[in-house]
Design brief:
The structure is a homodimer. By secondary structure, the first copy, chain A, is of the alpha+beta class. Chain A folds into 2 domains: about 300 residues, 2-methylcitrate dehydratase PrpD, CATH 1.10.4100; about 120 residues, 60s Ribosomal Protein L30, Chain: A. Helix content of chain A is about 50%, strand content about 10%. Chain A contains 20 helices and 8 strands. In chain A, the strands form 3 sheets. Chain A has a 4-stranded mixed sheet with strand order 6-5-7-8, with helices on one face. In chain A, helix 16 crosses helix 18. Chain A is globular and about 75 Å long. The N and C termini of chain A lie far apart (about 55 Å).
């Protein structure tokens, strides 16, 4: 209970950081995170979750200053932050800070780009604020993970609100005191239960974190005060929501080690826990092109967490398919893919998939690393195709290249805004830090949309 | 972990309750709670906390359909719910469900009256929804109190969001499934840290609970789905935020025992923990009219919680004065009052108060009931004036009468909207259940305002 000055230290760093001190590798990772987020937000923008949120809440929107990415509607900045945050996460295809399984870009970027439509912000300033937000969010996550997550908190929501507040606070030029208030106002709104996984509320969490974090910054700017030690106080965030409080994770090495540099981008549209299985099955598909009728059975050996999180034997919907390692393996073996197309209702209901996933056997072994998987496919001709994946594509060891991110972006956005708008948007997005006005990106992400 | 159907049971009750089955005593207590809330919201409406929230967030408001009570501004229904919720709690003068120390009316009534300006709602329907919301909120509080509060959660915020969702869900005619979604969407936004006490964020909690609960109901209505067991699931509300989960408190005796009937109304504008001291000191003031210079010292004997919560020896601001039993006792002895006037910066800085509170001695004794206090005032002429308070005015044992509530209302609203508007408003408020259109009340509460 004796930690002091934690919130102040972080707030002071967030308010005062000079852009020139950000290493170029971090700067570029920031751009990658932003580009990946933008593609996901456009890609998810037609989802029923987004439609229903708009149908419920648009009537309460203020002046329509901000773009709903991938759509024609415009809402006030706070509502746009909410909706874009939902869109960016709804396909479970966004990004992951593997140390905490926070999906970091959604809450922060959704808040920033929306606010950037209400005031002039250069791309470089937006990127600086984005990197600050990612850092704040992930460091707070490090301080309480895994206990906080194990207790049942959806850490993307609970820490994302701090990231959004710090990032928008930075855009608004808050001093240290007001930045600490912004974090306080954010922290006292921190929320999001894991019980919501599998429902529309899961993607609501990063959306609400974006919206509430941005509101926290505007409130603090107006002199709405708060605790100046929300993180470390006995009845503050870390003690209330977690049994673990490692405050050094928040304050040590600020500006030296960068959590923002550790972000990874999902090659597959589901929780990372089954990415090794999907990666291995895709490899077998590409190498052997086996057909369903030739497969007698499939054996998977994985960490126990895989079945705990994705043990659904008979998924009925696309969403349930994300929580079925059986379906994900079958689809990857037959189609070589784990993109959002793998998790549609049609894909999950495909009789060929239904039949094959019944022949998938899963053996769990605590000795296997969470990031690894072993796959063996037994064929009717007696052959046994095997693949071991030590680290899946998209992991820190095997990161997506910039081109991979562009490919993923195009694959998501072309069906929504078409090829021409996609090409213009992806070019702009990679040049984020050179844009005189970052809002240009938002407007480009609504061109030619349905 | 084996509790099942808790959320469904409560949602089904909230959606299906017939107004005619509400006992008349509960019905009247509902009116009292509403009247008390309305006076507090008008009374707090000029506070700096409200000003700053408006200054930060008005720019994001949608169509101005709803009244900011006691003010000229109008905002969309969700923003009005937020601001009115802040106003109603900002003077710590509202109401208390003593079993859980929830201040129940704020989150529920602030949501309901704002929503009633966006759609036609009779006073009786609003009152029914209000009673439903109070019941939902307090029963959920019972299930997790005191562990939940002890962990550091501001229970008015964390449970208020459920109450607001259920109440607005009721107004919107949600069926059981959508009502359970509304509770799920509410629960996954549940938040509010006790670390915020003493800052503007304390009253932000009931405001945000009102706003977020109302939004949850609108989302559920639009088919935005959620868990249908947010209360009882292993990673649902009760398990995540508390070590105690007494689900019988939620489901047993629904429609038979009524938590809404147990609401109490504050005669003094501070936490109830020092109400016995203030009551006793006011009694001594009325009986003996002692002056400061005649008092040698004051001795208080109280439960240890009094010093834990209100042990500030040298408060500097009105707000800090609420957390100083020394100040509260001195002011009550000299002025016979514990209304918001007792907790202004001027009152706290009055040299006579500063001098007298230095002569107040507090002895704690765990054997003394939390609701009791013993006061002894030693005078320079050798007399010793004593008073023991077993239960303070405003408690369940000594409730405020309807006339007391009217007096309290007038005392708060006359300085804001004047006598004429106050008289019209209080008459209307007591007739809540006969009003064809409840929105009339909101509009009357903004007449003649500054």
């Amino acid at each position: 209970m004796s930690a002091t000055g934690i919130t102040q230290t972080l707030a002071s760093w967030a308010a005062g950081l000079s852009r020139n001190t950000i290493p170029s590798s971090v700067w570029h990772q920031g751009v990658r995170s932003f580009v990946n987020w933008l593609g996901c937000a456009v890609g998810g923008s037609q989802h029923a979750t987004v439609e229903r949120a708009l149908s419920a809440l648009s009537r309460f929107s203020g002046p329509p200053k901000a773009t709903i990415l991938g759509r024609r509607e415009r809402l006030d900045e706070l509502h746009a932050a909410l909706i874009n945050g939902i869109s960016s996460h709804v396909l479970d295809y966004d990004d992951t800070h593997l140390k905490t399984i926070i999906h970091p870009a959604g809450p922060v970027a959704s808040a920033l780009l929306a606010v950037a439509e209400g005031q002039p912000v250069s791309g470089a300033d937006l990127l600086t604020a984005f990197i600050v937000g990612l850092e704040v969010e992930c460091r707070i996550g490090n301080a309480v993970y895994p206990d906080h997550y194990d207790r049942g908190w959806h850490i993307t929501g609970t820490t994302g609100v701090f990231g959004a507040a710090a990032a928008v606070g930075r855009l608004r030029g808050l001093d240290t005191q007001r930045m600490s208030w912004a974090m306080g106002i954010a922290g006292t709104q921190s929320s999001g239960l894991r019980e919501m996984f599998g429902t529309m509320c899961k993607s609501f969490h990063p959306g609400r974190a974006a919206q509430n974090g941005a509101a926290a910054a505007f409130l603090a700017e107006a002199g709405f005060d708060s605790s100046e030690r929300v993180l470390e106080a006995p009845r503050g965030f870390a003690h209330v929501v977690s049994t673990k409080q490692d405050f050094d994770e928040i304050t040590q090495g600020l500006g030296e080690r960068w959590e923002a540099e550790l972000n990874t981008y999902k090659p597959f549209a589901c929780g990372i826990v089954i990415h090794p299985v999907i990666d291995g099955c895709c490899q077998i598909h590409r190498e052997f092109r086996v057909s369903a009728r030739d497969i007698v059975f499939v054996e998977l050996r994985v960490h126990p967490l895989v079945l705990e999180l994705t043990g659904k034997r008979e998924p009925k919907t696309g969403l349930e398919g994300k929580f079925s390692v059986y379906h994900a393996a079958a689809y990857a073996l037959l189609r070589g893919d784990g993109s959002p197309e793998a998790f549609t209702d049609a894909a999950v209901g495909d009789p060929e998939m239904v039949a094959l996933r019944a022949r998938v056997k899963v053996e769990v072994d605590p000795a296997i690393h969470e990031a690894s998987a072993h796959i063996a496919v037994t064929l009717s001709d007696g052959r046994r195709l095997q693949r071991s994946v030590a680290a899946a594509i998209g992991s820190l060891e095997k990161p997506l290249s910039d081109k991979d991110i562009t490919d993923k972006f195009q694959r998501q956005t072309i069906p929504v805004i078409g090829s021409d708008a996609t090409n213009r948007l992806i070019d702009l997005a990679w040049q984020l830090d050179a844009l005189p006005d970052a809002a240009e990106l938002a407007q480009a992400a609504a061109q030619s949309c349905p």
